Amino acid sequence: LIVNYTIQATIIGDNGLPVGGDKKIMQKTIRVKTLNSNTNISGLAQEVVDKCKLIHPNKVKDVEQQLYYLQQRQIEEFGQEQLINLNSRNAIEDSIQSKEFENEAPSIENIEQYIEGLYEEMPDKINSTRNILQLARVPENMEILIENEALMSALSRVLREDGKKSMELVTNIIYIFFCFSNFSHFHQNITQNKIGDMCLRIADQEIQRYNIWVRDLDKLEAKCKQNPGNAPYIKELENEHKKFQAMLKKQDQLLFGKKKNKKKIINN
């Protein structure tokens, strides 16, 4: 989205009257990266207006119309199946191999920057949620964070729309709300954002993810048994087992808050 605005500077003389000034036409680009057929356009439009102070609140409908146009254009260009491939193995592997970023220590003063990161690419979203999680672990920051409606709304939306794309992203957001859940007077905020319902859906999603991996590994193991000594098959099986173990560690961290040594049981 492109926001056009004007900055006008006026020089006031000793008599209180303007004696000169300058006017400059500016543009601000708002990058929206999570548009798909499941996106709540009305909610996203409200978030954009809440976050960008350059847009007047009465322009929500205009923003909504532009977002709808972008949504339809993306669906027409990429196709529904390509735009949302929730069960693809590639999405699983991307979440396992997510790139780590080194950043400065999180600061509550940078919260607006972290919110903006929730509208960027996946690495930026992960980095922003990681910083917000560090802030949420400090009790003094909790009131500031949970009263930031733009932040709470953005976190809920990212969890709902991108939860199947990155396990690290999901883990960060779940633990942010877990920090809030330790204080009873924050429970209403958690309920309003439907975090409990999304947690149940995520648990079911991870069970399905596990079952898909086990089924695929069983097929690959059967192929190796049928072709003993086949080096490419054996190598592929070893690589898949490594990815599977990495996925299990991330699942344990997400669902149990710790890492376990789990192995797939093979029935002879």
From TrEMBL:
Q: Name one GO molecular function term.
A: kinesin binding
GO BP terms, alphabetized = cilium organization; microtubule-based movement
* UniProt cross-references to InterPro entries, sorted A to Z: KAP3 (IPR008658)
* GO cellular component terms attached to this protein's record: axoneme; ciliary transition zone; kinesin II complex
Q: Name one Pfam family in it.
A: KAP
The protein, known as: Kinesin-associated protein 3
Source organism (scientific name): Clydaea vesicula
